[in-house]
Amino acid sequence: MSDQRLHDQLSTATPRAIDSAITRPSPYGTLAEPTYSGITSFLRRPYRKDLRDTDVAVFGAPFDLATTNRPGARLGPRAIRSASASLAWCPPYRWGFDPLDRLSVVDFGDLYFDPGRPADIPQGLYEQVRDILSHDVLPLALGGDHFVSFPILRALSERHGPISLIHFDAHSDTWRDEDDRVDHGTMFFHAARLGYVDPSTSIQLGMRTFNEETHGFQVCDAEWLHAQGIDRALHAIHSRVGQRPCYVSFDIDFLDPAFAPGTGTPVCGGFSTHEALRMVRGLASLNVIGMDVVEVAPAYDHAEITALAAASIAHELLAVVASRRPCRHDD
Ligand code: MN
Ligand code: MN
After folding, report:
1. From the CA of 207, how far away is ligand 1's center (Å)?
2. pTM, full prediction
3. 265 CA to middle of ligand 2, Å?
4. Ligand nearest to the CA of 150
5. Beta bridge mates, 142
6. Rg of the chain's alpha carbons, rounded to an integer?
7. What ligand has the least distance to the C-alpha of 257?
8. Which residues on neighbouring strands pair with residue 165, listed in sequence order?
């Protein structure tokens, strides 16, 4: 949004300029609304279950029954939506365009599951994601613990075949496991085993926990990434993935606990928010078909540090997708 457009909108504000999550006329564009008030959909997108004419559906997956350490990521989607209000008044900087002028983005709300029937949850999440994908929309999921990536990858792989995974995390999440266990540290082992992802065209970044097996994934661990730097890492990502359909999965514990205290399994020696945002920006031009930001556990957060980081990363991910699209909104 131009400064003039923002000024014009603020100066002609009407009562409809609040609660734009339910009052906005279009899923395109940025509308200014006081950051501290109103219904907090993600980035003030319209809350909608109707996915016609939608490019990206943002949805929450408030599931944290697969955590191995501290629970609480079930409250992540709500916290990320709330923090995103402070980003919703202008486009992300350094792109030169507003991703919301190029993409029709809605907040689909949260996926449903019955926590009293845990064995049914993976199938239930998968079916809901499959329904979302049937509208040819791109999913942006807000976790929830990292297991929520698994049903999403299952649904995406049915449409695209084995997917290239770009995975930011302190943990590999590929620890060997028995079939059908629901665990946020093993779902990428299962995703590879079941052919949802293709490890030979996938890359993992930021690991700093021990796993002697890679299962064919390229692993750029934290030591490598700190020593080699972001540009080398981006080169490695683009070389590995090319223009294949890829899924970006961002576990917020990729960040150092200093930058993301609000997570269930923090690991020292990680990365700054600046480094993470630079890496995400460097994904522009990739063929992204889905993405998530997971493991935000607000009970351990301070001053919204973690939730704001997650919202900012999700905002940049939208810009990554938009970088391949023309402008479709000229209001
Ligand atoms: Mn993870
Ligand atoms: Mn992790």
Report:
1. 10
2. 0.95
3. 6
4. 1
5. 60, 293
6. 19
7. 2
8. 247
